[in-house]
Amino acid sequence: MKLEAHGLRKNYGALVALDDLTFEAGAGEVVGLLGPNGAGKTTAIRVLTTILAPSAGTFTVAGVPHTRPAEVRRRVGVLPESAGYPGQQTGAEFLRYHARLFGHSRASAASTAAALLDRVGLAERGSTPVSTYSRGMRQRLGIARALVNDPEVVFFDEPTLGLDPAGQRQVLALIAAVARERGATVLLSTHFLGEVEEACARVLILNRGRVVAAGTVAEVTRRAAAPRRGRFRVPAEERPRALEVLARVPGLGAPQALDGRPDWLLASLEGAEVADAVRALADADVPLLGFEQEGARLSDAFLSMTEDE
Amino acid sequence: MGRRWAVVAGQELRDLWLGGRALLLLLAFSVLASAITYVGATSEGINFLEKRETVNLTLQVAVMFGALIALLVAADAISGERERGTLESLLLTPVPRRDLVSGKLVAALSVWFAALVVAVPYLWFLGRDVGAVDDAVLAGLLVGTLVAVSLAALGMLVSVLAASNRVSLSASLFVLLALFAPTLLPGGAKQGWAGELLQRVNPMTAAEHYMRNVVISQYEWTKELSWLVSPIVASVLLVALAVLVAPRFISLRGGAPE
């Protein structure tokens, strides 16, 4: 495992910002870190990147224990939340400087900076001051900076915040490429559930500093125990027959018509397989015009797990 | 690997000088020095000072201005990075925090040395007839450097601990004014054992006293060396605190360690 955390805890005085964070992630894996504001996502990243010392617990990065912070920092790349950039430096100068801080020689720093600028699509703007960059360009520069040391684990903290859809797509594609092409472990902290569903193999949901769910998106969704219901769309004139057919499907909750929508039926899917219901309708020659499943999305799981009691 | 402080210093020097901030401050200093030199050299009515006293005045202004700029640059070093959101990126590198502080301290001190270089032509112009140039330049280099080092280290300490850049800059300026204020007191206030003790304890007044003795009174360099005790102690102590202790307290939020 490239990243392993066991019982991590971070207190600010009496406030527990992070409590018993335990997880692991392998090479090339993209793990989503979800949670509402104040859930502890940024604190978790700052602890795992040695910016903050844990109050309890341990973690290792590529086998290096947290008790050797300088060694850990050599192996991680980070795009911090709301990262600032020195406006008077050029993009290339900024990357060269950070490469030198990671021990590159002058020549190696220059070639690394040029390659990374090219990789994030900023090659043509590398010699202009960062102050002239758009927010999306700065985020891409930040991603390049996070890669100057060829890290084994990369942390992205809200990388698409404030970006337009095109910028979000560019940044997400870069993040996916980091894991795919470099084999790096990626921890992606975000508010955008769609990003996690799109980019992450696994997800951790934090709430009030604690992990409330962990696993693949499908596992987390299932574990959320959000009520699963199916909406079946049939021709309005077939609705009575469809109700009869669905009522006979074992385990399917009592189907009912939807008020004001004569072509839709609603039924609980808790004890039934969707396929059985669809097959029953097909066997009875009831045309199925549409089907929607409620309570089976990550957003439903997220809300059910993080809504305040 | 062992010279990361030099990498930090190099980048800080580029930002400071190529970014134009230090050049602007030096321009302001050269305008001030030009005005003093012009008034001191040409005005019959105001030129009541001995030429050596005019040289000393110019030197004092150079020391105060250079040290002030060094203090302000150092006071911005950590708290400014924190406020601009660039500190986290630096802390995420494997560079020891001590090297970050050392590199930034070196860059801050460059402004003092530049101010002294700018002052040399003025000191030469004013002191060439009375043989005060060598004394003034050497006194500036040795004693002024002690003052500048002390203040830059002080600014760095405040910058590490301050919760905001505004607090850092204003606290540093307040300390500077408190230290320099006694140099403006009339001679009577400096008389007696208590007055002399206060002058000796305050590194700024002690440095000013020593430089005045060398430049105006033409004392030997070795005479009254005891006046350099507090500037030396202050510079060693403050640099040690800034480089050895303060780095442990560098945090993203400032103030108490997280």
Written account of the structure:
The complex is a heterodimer of chains A (309) and B (258). The longest helix of chain A is centred in the middle third of the chain and has 18 residues, at 165-182. Chain A has helices at 41-48, 69-75, 91-101, 106-119, 135-146, 165-182, 193-199, 217-223, 239-247, 274-283, 298-306, and strands at residues 3-12, 15-25, 30-34, 56-61, 64-65, 76-79, 153-157, 185-190, 202-207, 210-216, 229-233, 256-258, 261-268, 290-294. In chain A, 36% of the residues lie in helices and 27% in strands. Chain A starts with a strand and ends with a helix. Chain A is of the alpha/beta class and 309 residues long. Chain A has a six-stranded mixed sheet with strand order 6-7-8-3-9-10, with helices on both faces. In chain A, strands 2-1-4-5 form a four-stranded antiparallel sheet, with helices on one face. Chain A is elongated, with a radius of gyration of 24 Å. The model of chain A has no long low-confidence stretch (mean pLDDT 88). In chain A, a hairpin with a 2-residue loop joins β9 (202-207) and β10 (210-216). Chain B is mainly alpha-helical and 258 residues long. Chain B has one domain. Chain B is 74% helix and 0% strand. Chain B is built from ten helices and no strands. Chain B has helices at residues 4-18, 21-42, 51-84, 87-91, 97-127, 133-161, 165-180, 192-201, 203-215, 229-245. The longest helix of chain B is centred in the first third of the chain and has 34 residues, at 51-84. The two termini of chain B are 28 Å apart. Chains A and B meet through α2 and α3 of A and α1 and α4 of B.
